[in-house]
Amino acid sequence: MTDLYQTQRAMRAIRKAAMQRGVVALLDIGSSKIACLVLRFEGVDPARQAEGIGSLAGQSRFRVIGASTTRSAGVRFGEIDTMAQTERAIRIVVQGAQKMANTRVDHVIACFAGAGPRSYGLAGEVDVIGEQVGEQDVARVLADCDLPDIGAGREVLHAHPVNFALDNRSGLSDPRGHVGNHLAVDMHLLTVDEAAIQNLVYCIRRCDLELAGIANSAYVSGLAALVEDEQELGSACIDLGGGATGVSIFMKKHMIFADAVRMGGDHVTHDIAAGLQIPMNVAERIKTFHGGVVATGMDDREMIELGGESGDWEKDRRRVSRAELIGIIRPRVEEILEEVRAILDAAGFDRLPSQQIVLTGGASQIPGLDGLAARMLGQNVRLGRPLRVQGLPQAATGAGFSSIVGLALFAAHPQDECWDFEIPAERMNGKPLRRALRWFRENW
Q1: SHS2 domain spans which residues (predicted)?
Q2: Global confidence as pTM
Q3: Considering the domain boundaries, does residue 306 fall inside one?
Q4: Angstrom distance (rounded) from CA 173 to CA 176
Q5: Could you tell me which of 118, 189, 354, 427 has the fewest CB atoms within 10 Å of its CB?
């Protein structure tokens, strides 16, 4: 644990210092687009200073002063595939956001969708030292959680304490200051492929930027798209991106499960391009303007001009019916939703008090998708858009920007994680995270 714990604490310190200086950049590295926001922080809201727990608790006021988006390059399935192309795209989008903000940024917080996330539930319990629960008691009980065998080549990305119990009282969000004798905790651990994080760190360092935090896209999309009651009662956020579909489940305002499907909107575009034998850019345009998943009697008569630039006049002037286009799109969308349903079933989503499902992400805007998802997933389904934040451009308020807006909320309103607490020195090499993060020691 020592390397991972110290590195995450270092990133937290970097983020806190950047926020105190006033400016930090956010990067959403997706398969279809790379987005960047520049935030200016205006200090901590004193009225909400006491909310939450942990060293970074508190609500920082912020506004967006720069925004930029560019077409993604070198990213597949939500993971970096071609380093040089991704580096070039990141440089372009960061420079655009800096120009709009009229300031330079050196620190970025990034999120990504792939890397095969897996969730684990951990539990720990200790006896309280003294009469009241203190910071050291919370650190000790978190350190008592035994790390499961997460497998070779996998590392911890998030480690949230989701529930505290003191003696016979459960459901505590912050046990500090409470009187009791026996403290227990339930913690949610999210692991990802080590190589994916390593590539992301290298790519950002090649862009002359310093990494101040990493987050999972499914997690931050849930922060942006789910309203407060949905996060409290139990809801799932399905982030339909370009190369991957992220699934996150929230309960009691904490993420308790996350996973991903290695399919997204780009796969629908590929199917259209292959089925109609047209270029990818034409397929994307047709999907955007004419796509759908539910055919009606009118769609047989609605003809779509394919267009093209092949030089063959006959081929470029072809037309297809909208019903034929829907016949290509629907099977792939059904396949994605089947994978999502399997993930929700494996997570025990049907046992939550509320079973609201929120669809967000760029691919969620296909007409009729919410109705198809409601029939296939068997739950209440709605389309989610990101919460409005001050200064956000109108172009960045759509469902495709849930991740980047959620990342802003993640930066300004942090939830506690294991590394926010000072783990006792005698437990550093004990049960909690015995696996050292080798590449952090060698390359950070």
Answers
A1: 24-225
A2: 0.87
A3: no
A4: 9
A5: 354
